[in-house]
Design a protein that fits this description.
Blueprint lengths: L11 E6 L10 E6 L10 E8 L4 E6 L5 H15 L9 E4 L19 E4 L7 E2 L2 E2 L2 H20 L7 E5 L3 E9 L8 E2 L4
Length: 190
């Protein structure tokens, strides 16, 4: 369990309410978590994986990290995610406010721009073709094994969290300001 909760509210530039079906890997979200004896009942989470069968959301709780450790971890995740992304910098601001497109994995469920790392997502197009569910799972497992696991193995680092979807409420997708020195591009999803 984490020793301390760090306040990263100042890094939230904007937020918008979202249904859980609009949440996908790479998004930064904030929500209320209803469970007895939970240490952080209002986490800011970098979503890594959404398990539809078990109704779970896996991610990194940024409230358990100070600014320096958050910057290091986000840099490594961005570097690792760039292997699977078409762009050099997979971190960006996405906007779904354009024309409706039913083939998108998120189906235009969000109205305002939000911050997202281009992590592998089922049905998202890479190199012109949609990613299969098994390929997205394989790529995320490799990213976890090669990048994320080295941070969560430390005794003082209990940042990887799994949340039950039915205990999450007031979910908000964030436009998140990265720590100083870590930049992201801008992409418009149409």
């Amino acid at each position: 369990m984490a020793i301390r909760i760090h306040n990263h509210i100042s890094k939230i530039q904007r937020s918008q309410p979202a249904k859980i079906k609009a949440v996908h890997p790479g998004m930064f979200i904030r929500f209320k978590y209803r469970k007895k004896e939970v240490f952080d009942d209002n986490p800011i989470l970098l979503v890594l994986y959404k398990d539809y069968k078990e109704n779970l959301v896996h991610g990194i709780n940024l409230n358990y990290l100070n600014n320096t450790r958050m910057k290091v971890i986000l840099e490594e995740v961005v570097k690792g995610a760039s292997i699977y992304s078409e762009s050099i910098n997979p971190a960006g601001l996405e906007d779904q406010s354009g024309k409706y497109d039913d083939t998108m994995p998120y189906r235009n469920l969000l109205k305002k721009p939000y911050t997202r790392l281009k992590l592998p997502v089922f049905k998202e197009k890479r190199e012109g073709n949609p990613i299969s569910q098994s390929e997205a799972m394989r790529q995320m497992k490799m990213l976890y094994e090669k990048v994320i696991k080295k941070f969560i193995k430390r005794k003082d680092s209990d940042i990887y969290r799994t949340y039950h979807i039915n205990r999450m409420s007031a979910t908000r997708v964030l436009e998140f300001k990265f720590p100083h020195g870590l930049k992201y591009g801008s992409t418009k999803v149409i």
